[in-house]
Amino acid sequence: MNNLRIYKGADYNDMSRKAASVIQSQLTVKPESVLGLATGSSPVGLYDILAKAYESGDVDFSRAKTVNLDEYQWLAPDDEQSYRYFMQKHLFSRVNINVDNTYVPNGLAADPEEECKHYNYIIEHLGGIDLQLIGIGHNGHIGFNEPSDEFPAKTHLVNLAQKTIEANKRFFKRAEDVPRAAFTMGIGTIMNAAVVLLIVSGGEKAEILKEAFFGPITPRVPASVLQLHRNVILAADGAALSLFPAS
Ligand code: GLP
After folding, report:
1. Rounded to the nearest whole angstrom, what is the distance from the C-alpha of residue 42 to the centroid of ligand 1?
2. Active site includes 141?
3. 247: pLDDT strictly greater than 80
């Protein structure tokens, strides 16, 4: 795939460092960039590096705007498990971004359909996404676009797959506390981003990562759609890349 560039890191920290340098370069070249951001354990190290780079004067978020991929339904922004809370904690409170320029779907929206329309409007109004950071779920999901029969174009409310609930329960006190539904940006929106930066670490993601890039393009493996994107950067560690033919 000549639209895929691979930055291979030795381990999680090295992958995070390489991914952070991509975001720093993006903000240097275009300080008013619209960054699509992600949550989960994969980007924690990268956000920490960006916060430290800000402290040492090496990156400036003052003109940046951000749109997050997803948010759990019915979790309030100040709920420690919400993705808004995660973003505040790991990045927004640690850099000079104007919080009014940061967007995360409103998990408490009384009218989910309206919330989806509103989120689509925000992304369009910002002029689309310059760089979209994503992780990959164990079942190949990106954002919360779960395996299904079609690639959803825009923001929608999804019922989370059992595998996702299982994987994410580690962040909650009890498995029953994991929300069953979430708002997520659609695959079409992710595909419209000028650059997609995918970060993956650990041997347990090796199989799904190989399937995503070397298997058939199918909504049963949502990340496989990235084979059709014109500009994908994959920052991954050796363990995640261990089943890649070229590595
Ligand atoms: C979560 C998020 C995704 C994330 C994925 C992997 O459910 N909605 O955006 O990429 O699962 O998470 P992790 O990085 O913790 O493996």
Report:
1. 7
2. yes
3. no
